[in-house]
Structures are given as structure tokens and as C-alpha cells.
């Protein structure tokens, strides 16, 4: 969901009143009642909200296009209601649609006892470039649309308001009804045929007859489909001068079988979707309603000539009230419904209320308005004060007194505070909290105690006015609560003790004067957490026993299996004390951590741990809840991936039934075994099958375990981490990515390959017999293939993306394969499993053996490869460019304590797994597992390049089309497969913006030059993975860093805009978006220059501060005895003028950016045929050297999200906050590293997070032994 800044909103009754008063024809002369907040009321300069000559609409129902609720209907989670109306006065069209779908956890739609009315805030808007008038305009492209959402946390209501102009222009109406023109038609008909008796028509008759034609046209039961052009009624009503009008409505002039000219009525196809307003049928329905209104508004003398005129419009106000959920809301006993003849006080509109609200509803409106727009809370308090006095309400006056006692401030206080800091209130939309804090911090060191008190009071006033915790903490400079302590340190509840001490040191290093405050903050944290380590630090100044991570605790005690019972743990603990009594304190710390993690009071008692700190684990029944997985030597990332893949039903079923899909390694089969563009050897297949068998055992235990934690051992972890060396390149070749540097990706991947653990049983010696003949692609073919998609990093190294292509053809535009695949009979496909959409795509691949030097080994010996070897990049002319990568540092490894000698070999294996684990990430391991599984199973067929087709490819892979436009204008079209999309976050981005960076047109390197290219999706995978780049490289510091920019996700995304489409309108919109993105980039660059690199000190502020400083020196300079140099009298005024000029430019640039963003946000709102639901996020907290992984998975069936954090699987209580709007105050910031979306139409067939049967004693795949 797209995050929005705080803004004013309105209750449903207020919105309805604004809808009845909003006239688009006059909107440009004043505030937009629908989109703009009510202006702040100033009695001395009050401007009415309603411009003169605005229409107070009298809307009537267009029943043919409405879906209204019944009187007793209660809006459900998936309900959608719509009311379409037309104004009897100005014929303005209004459509109001309320949709409760699209959110699984928002299950309490308003109204409720706590939320008696919807409170709507504007999300986005779409308006034509200039206001439309009712005269001489086409409806196409002239509609105004506004999107609102209800602010209630558990209400999923989204409201769409569409306002559009009349379908008939004033010229067309004049053509039909002008008495002079009607008389001329009568005279022309009579003169053309004097033998016929013609009856003169009038305006009402003409309108009525045209409406009758349209009614017959829309009625499928009507037998009339045509009429002669010589028809007497037609001639006197329409003659020949209405031909163009009739054709615009869909009438067709033809000839009958006898050659006589006739008019054929429009025959629009039946409406498939009642909510579709873009069809020709919907247009004719609108015109028919307008004709009914126009006829009704004609003089009674004209209407008297119409026989059986029974048009009776139905007012739509009650239907609008029902849809908006505002029937019978609580009203003031002393008020009546708002009368437009008696304007209400502007304060009501400011609060988003109406004048007939009861006192309770008025307080509800005030609370919601302050909640949505806290920045203007002083003004809303003023509104409430005045209304309480005007209404003489004891309830309201009590509320006002209570707020006043809580230091609620007024507008005058706020204005004084802004003036104190030199901030112009006219530009508050561009003044951030960081800017104000910067002004405060820059001045506080240079003032005395008295001025400091005053300055803090002023800052405290602004903190209240802006509802800013940042400013409030800075103003008080005091810490009294646990929350304040965490906030001051920059920590959160989950920040471990050792990192609390790191933050303490950073604070003191930044400012030694903060030591006392920092100590108080740590003391509050220590007291709340009952942390012995923090208490020791505060008493001795030395870092005491900070709490260990459970994984480290198990490692210290050398316990490989984290599922063992307490008795076994106690035995091991006592054994360790016997073996190494000198390490007693270290072992005790480890046991304390394990006791807390397991919730074991027995373990806690052995080491004297406070029993109150132990929380016994409770949870749902075993059969209803997924199991956790043990963390063996930093394998949190592996646990996240296993949980994710287990929840994919086709993937899990294939692993559990592996024997049905297992590859038969016959001499006939092996030469054809190509996965990821590489020939697979017998040894690779054997080891992959060994891995899949181990994975099947883990999956079995995850289903049948009678505990909350499943089991696996270090052998499984080692098999998972052992990487097929060819797959590193293959992984990148099947990644859709923008053509940009991936910075540290190559370096990190190189490190992973160099440190993989291996044993004699897994290492493979390369022999010629392992490599089938003809398996290698020609070097020329491979070189051309790679050059199309490589991109230069800052360090000179190359990334290779999007290269599963065939470039053997001279004309690359003909690369797309159209040959039939070979299919192996007797195997089911994912399409069969899902019984849904899916097909075996015909994709061409290129071999990559020459790119990876034919290395088929599962692991690379660390001693044989240097981490600083130069890296080669290949070009189309076959030359090799060599560049040295930047120096890299291996991830820091904790010092390992000595282990008992008899366990040395086992400890070595665990340590090797641990070391490798520190350099793995979730996306890397996912691709490794997928590659192994594909290598282990038999193919269902082959594409034209011999690449294996299989069930996993159908599940996880899609196809893309890259279009490269050469300098000569020729286009090369390249088709390839992809299994994930790589998203780059140079700054915080919305998910659509990040995807735009991948798919939109951009510069690409080709043959040493720059060409333009763009990418589109040809076929959609059921499971769509997105890898979020989180590694950066600092050229100055020569070190890597983690990118913590926020990726704003949506619960549902629509891929229509990224699909390869023949729709000309969609393709035009894509090109328009590309142009808009360029314009936005230029505006953002201009604004970045004005804002500057430092928070709180933009260019206007900096120059303004300089002007004020120079002004303060002028008195000194004029003193002849001061010896100070003279100052030009015009310098300060000149700087002030420049500051004002830049401030205006910054405001204008910001406004233009917002307008452009609104257009872009709503551009593709009608294209929603390719929906994907957010399913899973692999999260990471830490830095490039270390950190922790966990995964969130969405259970669609039960409507909940779960957090899978190693052994713990917990329900996410508030996904809207924890997942979609995570805290930015924690440090390090948790960020999604791997994001999974699922095709919405088949999600129930693809995912099944809960698959448990702990009551079974014999697991699937295990053989029951019987006596012979």
C-alpha cells in the first residue's frame, strides 16, 4: 500500500455534502471541495468555499449502472457497491464506488461502535489539464477521479469518486430543441413532399423521440432495429441537419433490400460487467438519462403533446447515504439537516463534520482529524473551542477543558514559535522536522541558560503542533521511560544488549556532555530488561555479561541439535564444566540464553536466573501451526528459505514424492541433461539427488514432528551450501535487472565460492569423461551472448544479467523460438498440478561453460583461488578487459573458544558450515536449492536449445522480451527466461517505481556503445520472486555497506504495465510514463540541489541564515573603534531577496513534483488483469558482514501473516505496521532482501503454509519393517 503524508480528512456526511456542492465548472476559481482541505478560517479575510454560480446538485439515480445495497445490508469484507447519478440541473455525472476488498486482515468495516462513520482521506486524484465546461467538450479524457481510503485500521474501505461532464453539449441540445431549427425541418419536409400531411414538432417531442430510439436500441427484446429516412416523424424531428449527431451516437445510415435509405439503430453488445462505464452501451445509457432530464425540464406546454410520458427520476441521495454507511447517524437534538440556504460555520468543514452532528460525533470528527493531520492540531483545537461555545455544549466544553489541561496549544502559540525560529508559515509544506531540529541544534550551543529555556519551550510548542516525537525528545532533553530511553539511543525493543552499549558509546563519542543522559538511558533499559550485563557495565564501566544470541549459546556448549530436551542439555552443561572449569562463567551465560529461549524454568534454576524472566512458550495446537527450525551455526537464512519453499505446495509435493520424478542417470539421458544453460555431469546429479533426499527428510519432519521445532543436521546445511559453480553465473543470467552496477555482488559471490566447506565425499575431480562431447558452446557464441547484458561496476568489474538467449542467429529480432519442444511421456507438469494457466515456454538458451571455464565441481578449494584475483569481462569482439576489484574484507568471525579434542572433527564441520553461512543470503540459497532440485529430477521435455523443461521451471520461471534499439533505429528482440527480478534502491522507493527502473526504457551498453532498450514480460510465473539489492560499495572508505532505503510494498500489484502487449493504448501509456519519469528525474535533481546534502539546511534557509548573521554584525562594523571591516549595506538585503527567490523556486518545484506523481500514480488504474498478491518477505537486519534473517509468510486461507524466526513461528498482530510500514527508528533497520508475489488467480493452488499431521507415527516415505 502506498504511504501518504498526514493530511486532513472528512467524515462520510461531510464528503456527501461536498459532493452535492462540488461543481467542476467553477472549481478553478476556488478551493477544490473534494481534494483540497478546508481553508483555515480567518474571520478578517474569510473567502467562502463555494464559488459563485456553483450548482447545488440534485442527483438522480442511474439505475442501469448502479449496484446499491439493500436497506439491511451489512458491507462485508469483499463487498463492492456503486451509485451512479446525474444532476437534474447541470447534467454532471457522478459515480461513487465503495470497495471493501483487497485486505485479508482488515475485517471490521465501518460503521462500528468505535468508528460510527467512515473517515476518509484523499489518496490520489486524476484531473484534466484544465477545467471542463459543459459546452462543446467530449467526455473522453475529461473525467475527474478521486481515490479516498478510510483511516480505520481494520476497515478496508476504499472510495472512488468519478465526476464527468454531460454527454450532450450545449450545441447539440440547441440543434435538437431550437424552435427556429425545428420549424425549418418541418418546412423542408412539407416542401419536399406536399402530398403528405406533416405535424410540426417541438423541442420536447424531439428529445422524447430520440430517447425512444435509444431505449429501443438498448432493449434486447425490442423488434425495432431500423426505420426509413423518409419517415414523417423523423423528418420533422431531425431532418438532415442532425445526421452527424446521430452518427456520433452509433446510428448507421444504410439502404434496405429495395435500395431505400434507412437509419439503423445502435446495437451495442450486452454489458459483461455492470461496473464498466467505458463501453458504448454505458455511453448510450448516460445519453438516454440526459434526454429524460432535458425533456422533463422543457415547458409544460411542449410536454403536453407527448403521449404516455412517464419519466420519473429517482433521487439518489438515500442510495449515496447507504453506500457511504451514514444512514441514521447520531444527530444533534437541536439541529436539522444542513440547509444550503443557511451556510454552516466553516469550522465544521475544517473538522470534516457537518452542522447536524451530535456532540459525540463532533468529538469523533475532531479526534480523527487530529489523528490524520496532527500538524494542524492547534487549529482544530480552536475549531472545537469555538463550536463548544456556540453550541453551549457541556460535553464539548468538558473536552476543551481536558485538552487545555493537557497543554494543548493554540495557533497563536504556534505562530510565535515558528517566528522565533525564522520559519515562514506560508511554506510549512516543505519544512521538515529534521530542518527545525537542525536550526535548534545549530543555535543551542551559543546561547545562555535563560535563552536555552525559552528556545526549548518554543521547540516543545512546535513538537506538539506537529505531533513530532523527534522534536519533543530534543526539547525536553530528559528521559523518564523505557520507550524514551530506547528512542534517545536510537534503539528498539528487539535491539540486543551488546548493541545498546554500542549506541551508548556512539552517543558519548558524538558529544561527551551527553554521558550522564546516556547512562540514564542505559539504566532504564537495564532495569526494564533485568539485564545483568548492562547493570555490570553501569557499575564497573566494563562490558559485562550481555545476553547471548541462542545460536551462539548452543555453539559455546557444543550442542548441534537445538531440539534436545532439558535433561540432555543439563548433562552436556555439566560435562563442559568438567572438561573446562575455567570457562564456567561463559558456559553459565550460554545456559541462561538457552533457558530464556526455551522458556525452561528448570534450566534457569541451575544457573540462578530470575524465574520471572522466563516465559513459557504457548501456542496454537500443533496440527494448526507450522513448526520452527533450529539455527545451526548461523543458518537463519537457510531456515527462512526452507520455510518459504515448504509452503509452496507444488514444490513440497515434488520433494516429498521425489522417487516419481528422480532422474535416471543412463548414458542415453545424461548427454541431454542441461540445466541453467550448463550440461550436468553424473556426479552433479548424484549429489543433487542426495541433497533432495535430505530435503525430503526435513520436509517430512516439518509435517509429522510432534514438537514445535523440526530437526535437521549439519550435513543437510552443508549439502545446501555446497554450490554448483556453474549456477553462480546461471543465477545472474536468469535475473531480470536494470542495467546498472550491482556494486558488491560479484565480490560477495566470489567470497562465497572461495569459502565453501567441503569434504572428501563431496569434492569432485574434473575429468574428461565427465564432460560429454558437444556440450560446450562456441566461444564466439558465448562472447556475443554475454556482452549484450553486462554492465560495468564502479570498480571496473562486470555484472551479467538477462542472458538466457540464443545469439547464433545474425538477425536477433528472429531469435524467439517457434519450434516444438520434445516431451517425455508419463510425467505430470506444474500445469497439471495447478489445473490452471501455464504452458511450457519455448525458450532458447546459450551454454555458459566457456564463461565459467567448464568447472563442474560442487565446491572450490579455498587454497586454489585468491580473493583478489583480477576479474575478466568479455566483449563482442572476443577481447578480454581486465580490471582489479576493490579490496574486500571477509566478514568478521567471532573468536571460537577451544573445543574438547575428541569432538574436533565434528566441530570443524560445524565451524565450516558457520563460516560459509555468514556469507550466504536468502536469494542465493533459494537459487542454489532450486538448481539442485532441477538437476536431480528428470525433464518433462526440452526447449530448442536442449534446456530442460520441468515442473519447477513452470512454477518459478517466467519469460521476458528485451527490445534493444540500435543507433540506426533497428530493433533487436531477445527472448529469455527469468526466475527473479532484481530491484535496485538508490533511494526509498515504491514497489512500482523500483519495477519501473527494471522494465522501462534506459541506456544499455552494447559493442562498446550506448543503445536504448526496455524489457517486457511475455509469460507470468505462478511464483514471482524479487531480489532487493542491499549491498553497496563506498569508493572513499573502500568498504561495503548495507543499503537501508525503504521499499514500499503493496498487498496487490498489477503487472499489466510490464507485460508484452498488443494493446495500442497501453503501449502509448507506457511511452508516456517513460517521458514522465524523465521529467520527474529532472525535477528531483533540481530539488536535490535546492534542498542540499545536509538535513535542515536547504539553500533558502542557509542563505537566509547568512543574511541574518550579516545583519547582526552591521552594528559592530559601523563602530569606528571596533576595528571590524565595513560591510556593504546591500549585502544582507540582497541575500534575503535571493533566499526568498530560492524558497519560491523550491516550493514550485515541490508542487510540480507532487502533481506529476499524482498523474503517474493513477495512470494505469484501469489495467488490473494481471494481479499478484504479496506472499512472503525474507528480512535481514545487520550489515554486509553479519546479521540475522527471518521470513514473513502470508496465510491466505486463514487471513493472517506469520513471522518465521528460526525456532519461533508467531502471528503478526499488525501487518500494516510491522510489514508494510516498519519502524525507521530501530538500528540496524530491518529490510526485505527477497520478496515473493503469487499470481492471485491460482494462489490457493500454489501455496499452503500449514501442512501438519503430528498424530502420524510413521512418516511418508518411511518403510514399515515386517518379519519375514
Please name the defining characteristics of this protein:
single chain; 1268 residues; alpha+beta; nine-stranded mixed sheet; seven-stranded antiparallel sheet; 36 strands; globular; disordered N terminus; disordered C terminus
Give your account of this protein's structure.
There is one protein chain. The protein has 1268 residues and is α+β, with helices and mostly antiparallel strands. The chain has a domain at 56-329. 39% of the residues lie in helices and 14% in strands. It is built from 43 helices and 36 strands. Strands 13, 23, 27, 31, 32, 33, 34, 35 and 36 form a nine-stranded mixed beta sheet that branches. A seven-stranded antiparallel beta sheet has the order 1-5-6-7-4-3-2, with helices on both faces. The protein has a four-stranded antiparallel beta sheet with strand order 22-21-26-25. The protein starts with 8 loop residues before the first strand and ends in a 22-residue tail after the last helix. Mean pLDDT is 76; it is low at 1-6, 131-141, 728-733, 739-906, 909-919 and 1258-1268. It comes from Viridothelium virens (Speckled blister lichen). GO terms for molecular function: cysteine-type deubiquitinase activity; proteasome binding. Residues 627-1240 form the USP domain. It catalyses: Thiol-dependent hydrolysis of ester, thioester, amide, peptide and isopeptide bonds formed by the C-terminal Gly of ubiquitin (a 76-residue protein attached to proteins as an intracellular targeting signal). Residues 884-900 have a biased composition (Pro residues).
Amino acid at each position: 500500500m502506498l504511504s501518504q503524508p498526514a493530511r486532513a480528512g472528512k467524515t462520510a456526511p461531510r464528503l456527501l455534502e461536498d459532493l452535492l456542492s462540488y461543481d467542476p465548472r467553477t472549481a478553478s476559481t476556488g478551493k477544490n471541495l473534494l481534494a483540497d482541505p478546508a481553508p483555515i478560517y480567518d474571520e478578517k479575510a474569510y473567502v467562502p468555499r463555494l464559488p459563485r454560480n456553483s450548482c447545488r446538485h440534485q442527483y438522480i439515480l442511474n439505475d442501469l449502472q448502479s449496484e446499491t445495497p439493500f436497506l439491511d445490508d451489512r458491507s462485508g469484507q469483499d463487498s463492492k457497491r456503486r451509485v451512479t447519478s446525474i444532476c437534474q440541473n447541470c447534467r454532471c455525472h457522478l459515480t461513487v464506488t465503495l470497495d471493501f476488498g483487497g485486505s485479508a486482515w482488515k475485517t471490521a468495516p465501518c460503521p462500528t461502535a468505535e468508528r460510527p462513520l467512515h473517515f476518509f482521506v484523499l489518496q490520489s486524484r486524476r484531473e484534466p489539464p484544465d477545467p471542463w465546461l459543459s459546452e462543446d467538450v467530449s467526455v473522453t479524457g475529461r473525467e475527474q477521479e478521486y481515490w479516498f481510503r478510510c483511516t480505520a485500521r481494520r476497515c478496508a474501505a476504499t472510495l472512488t469518486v468519478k465526476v464527468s461532464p454531460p454527454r450532450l453539449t450545449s450545441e447539440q441540445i440547441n440543434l435538437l430543441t431550437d424552435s427556429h431549427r425545428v420549424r425549418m425541418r418541418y418546412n423542408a419536409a412539407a416542401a419536399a413532399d406536399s402530398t403528405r400531411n406533416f405535424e410540426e414538432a417541438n423541442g420536447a417531442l424531439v428529445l422524447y423521440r430520440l430517447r425512444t430510439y435509444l431505449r429501443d436500441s438498448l432493449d434486447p427484446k425490442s423488434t425495432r432495429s431500423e426505420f426509413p429516412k423518409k419517415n414523417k416523424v423523423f423528418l420533422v424531428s431531425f431532418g438532415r441537419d442532425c445526421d452527424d449527431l446521430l452518427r456520433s451516437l452509433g446510428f448507421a445510415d444504410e439502404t434496405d433490400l429495395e435500395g431505400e435509405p434507412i437509419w439503423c439503430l445502435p446495437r451495442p453488445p450486452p454489458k459483461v460487467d455492470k461496473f464498466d462505464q467505458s463501453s458504448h452501451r454505458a455511453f448510450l445509457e448516460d445519453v438516454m438519462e440526459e434526454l429524460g432530464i432535458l425533456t422533463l425540464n422543457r415547458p409544460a406546454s411542449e410536454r403536453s403533446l407527448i403521449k404516455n410520458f412517464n419519466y420519473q427520476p429517482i433521487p439518489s441521495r438515500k442510495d449515496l447515504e447507504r453506500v457511504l454507511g451514514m444512514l441514521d447517524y447520531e444527530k444533534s437534538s437541536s439541529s436539522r439537516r444542513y440547509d444550503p440556504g443557511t451556510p454552516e460555520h466553516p469550522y465544521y468543514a475544517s473538522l470534516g463534520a457537518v452542522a447536524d452532528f451530535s456532540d459525540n460525533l463532533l468529538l469523533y470528527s475532531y479526534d480523527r482529524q487530529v489523528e490524520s493531520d496532527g500538524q494542524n492540531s492547534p487549529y482544530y483545537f480552536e475549531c472545537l473551542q469555538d463550536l463548544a461555545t456556540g453550541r453551549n455544549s457541556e460535553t464539548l466544553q468538558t473536552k476543551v477543558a481536558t485538552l487545555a489541561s493537557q497543554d494543548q496549544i493554540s495557533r497563536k502559540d504556534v505562530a510565535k514559535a515558528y517566528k522565533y525560529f525564522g520559519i515562514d508559515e506560508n511554506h510549512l509544506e516543505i519544512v521538515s522536522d529534521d530542518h527545525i531540529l537542525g536550526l535548534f541544534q545549530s543555535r543551542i550551543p551559543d546561547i545562555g541558560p535563560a535563552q536555552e529555556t525559552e528556545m526549548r519551550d518554543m521547540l516543545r510548542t512546535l513538537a506538539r503542533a506537529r505531533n513530532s516525537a523527534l522534536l519533543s525528545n530534543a526539547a525536553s532533553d530528559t528521559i523518564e521511560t523505557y520507550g524514551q530511553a530506547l528512542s534517545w539511543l536510537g534503539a528498539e525493543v528487539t535491539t540486543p544488549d551488546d548493541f545498546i552499549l554500542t549506541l551508548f558509546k556512539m552517543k558519548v563519542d558524538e558529544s561527551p556532555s551527553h554521558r550522564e543522559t546516556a547512562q540514564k538511558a542505559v539504566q532504564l533499559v537495564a532495569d526494564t530488561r533485568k539485564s545483568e550485563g548492562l547493570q555490570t557495565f553501569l557499575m564497573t564501566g566494563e562490558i559485562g555479561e550481555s545476553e547471548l544470541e541462542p545460536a551462539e549459546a548452543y555453539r559455546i556448549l557444543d550442542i548441534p541439535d537445538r531440539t534436545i530436551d532439558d535433561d540432555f542439555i543439563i548433562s552436556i552443561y555439566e560435562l563442559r564444566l568438567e572438561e573446562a572449569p575455567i570457562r564456567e562463567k561463559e558456559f553459565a551465560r550460554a545456559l541462561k540464553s538457552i533457558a530464556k529461549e526455551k522458556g525452561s524454568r528448570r534450566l534457569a534454576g541451575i544457573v540462578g536466573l530470575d524465574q520471572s524472566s522466563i516465559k513459557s512458550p504457548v501456542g496454537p495446537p500443533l496440527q494448526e501451526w507450522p513448526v520452527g527450525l533450529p539455527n545451526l551455526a548461523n543458518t537463519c537464512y537457510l531456515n527462512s528459505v526452507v520455510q518459504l519453499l515448504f509452503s509452496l505446495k507444488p514444490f513440497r509435493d515434488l520433494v516429498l514424492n521425489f522417487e516419481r520424478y528422480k532422474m535416471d542417470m543412463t548414458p542415453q539421458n545424461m548427454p541431454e541433461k542441461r540445466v541453467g544453460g550448463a550440461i550436468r555431469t553424473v556426479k552433479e546429479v548424484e549429489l543433487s539427488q542426495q541433497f533432495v533426499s535430505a530435503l525430503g527428510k526435513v520436509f517430512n519432519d516439518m509435517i509429522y514432528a510432534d514438537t514445535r521445532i523440526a530437526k535437521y543436521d549439519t550435513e543437510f546445511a552443508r549439502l545446501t551450501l555446497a554450490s554448483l559453480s556453474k549456477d553462480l553465473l546461471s543465477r545472474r543470467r536468469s535475473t531480470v535487472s536494470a542495467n546498472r552496477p550491482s556494486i558488491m555482488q560479484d565480490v560477495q559471490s566470489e567470497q562465497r565460492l572461495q569459502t565453501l566447506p567441503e569434504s572428501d565425499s563431496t569434492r569432485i575431480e574434473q575429468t574428461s569423461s565427465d564432460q560429454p562431447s558437444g556440450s560446450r558452446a562456441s566461444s564466439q557464441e558465448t562472447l556475443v551472448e554475454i556482452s549484450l547484458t553486462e554492465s560495468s561496476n564502479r570498480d571496473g568489474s562486470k555484472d551479467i544479467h538477462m542472458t538466457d538467449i540464443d545469439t547464433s542467429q545474425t538477425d536477433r529480432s528472429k531469435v524467439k523460438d517457434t519450434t516444438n519442444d520434445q516431451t517425455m511421456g508419463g510425467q505430470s507438469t506444474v500445469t497439471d498440478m495447478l489445473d490452471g494457466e501455464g504452458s511450457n515456454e519455448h525458450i532458447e538458451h546459450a551454454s555458459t561453460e566457456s564463461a565459467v571455464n567448464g568447472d563442474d565441481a560442487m565446491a572450490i578449494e579455498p587454497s586454489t583461488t585468491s580473493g583478489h584475483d583480477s576479474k575478466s569481462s568479455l566483449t563482442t569482439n572476443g577481447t578480454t578487459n581486465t580490471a582489479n576489484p576493490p579490496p574486500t574484507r571477509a566478514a568478521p568471525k567471532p573468536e571460537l573458544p577451544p573445543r574438547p579434542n575428541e569432538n574436533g572433527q565434528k566441530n570443524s564441520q560445524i565451524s565450516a558450515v558457520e563460516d560459509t553461512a555468514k556469507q550466504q543470503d536468502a536469494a542465493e540459497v533459494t537459487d542454489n536449492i532450486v538448481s539442485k532440485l532441477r538437476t536431480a529430477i528428470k525433464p518433462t521435455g526440452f526447449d530448442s536449445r536442449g534446456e530442460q523443461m520441468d515442473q519447477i521451471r513452470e512454477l518459478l520461471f517466467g519469460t521476458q522480451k528485451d527490445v534493444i534499439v540500435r543507433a540506426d533505429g533497428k530493433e533487436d528482440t531477445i527472448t529469455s527466461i527469468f526466475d527473479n527480478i532484481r530491484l535496485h534502491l538508490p533511494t526509498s522507493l515504491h514497489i512500482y517505481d523500483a519495477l519501473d527502473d527494471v522494465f522501462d526504457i534506459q541506456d544499455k551498453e552494447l559493442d562498446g556503445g550506448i543503445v536504448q532498450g526496455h524489457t517486457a514480460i511475455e509469460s507470468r510465473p505462478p511464483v514471482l520472486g524479487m531480489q532487493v539489492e542491499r549491498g553497496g560499495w563506498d569508493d572513499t572508505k573502500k568498504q561495503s555497506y548495507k543499503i537501508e532505503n525503504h521499499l514500499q510494498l503493496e498487498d496487490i500489484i498489477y503487472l499489466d504495465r510490464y507485460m508484452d502487449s498488443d494493446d495500442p493504448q497501453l503501449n502509448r501509456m507506457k511511452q508516456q510514463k517513460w517521458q514522465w519519469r524523465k521529467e520527474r528525474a529532472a525535477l528531483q535533481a533540481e530539488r536535490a540541489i535546492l534542498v542540499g546534502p545536509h538535513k535542515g539546511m536547504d539553500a533558502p534557509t542557509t542563505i537566509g541564515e547568512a543574511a541574518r548573521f550579516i545583519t547582526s554584525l552591521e552594528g559592530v562594523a559601523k563602530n569606528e573603534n571596533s576595528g571590524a571591516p565595513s560591510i556593504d549595506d546591500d549585502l544582507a538585503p540582497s541575500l534575503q531577496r535571493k533566499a526568498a527567490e530560492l524558497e519560491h523556486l523550491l516550493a514550485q518545484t515541490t508542487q510540480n513534483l507532487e502533481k506529476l506523481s499524482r498523474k503517474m500514480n493513477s495512470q494505469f488504474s484501469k489495467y488490473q488483469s494481471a494481479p499478484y498478491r504479496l506472499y512472503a518477505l525474507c528480512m535481514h537486519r545487520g550489515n554486509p558482514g553479519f546479521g540475522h534473517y527471518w521470513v514473513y509468510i502470508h496465510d491466505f486461507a486463514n487471513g493472517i501473516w506469520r513471522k518465521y524466526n528460526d525456532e519461533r513461528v508467531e502471528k503478526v498482530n499488525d501487518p500494516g505496521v510491522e510489514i508494510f510500514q516498519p519502524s525507521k527508528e530501530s538500528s540496524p533497520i530491518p529490510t526485505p532482501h527477497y520478496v515473493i508475489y503469487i499470481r492471485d488467480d491460482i494462489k490457493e493452488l500454489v501455496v499452503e503454509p500449514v501442512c501438519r499431521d503430528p498424530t502420524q507415527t510413521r512418516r511418508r516415505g518411511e518403510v514399515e519393517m515386517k518379519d519375514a
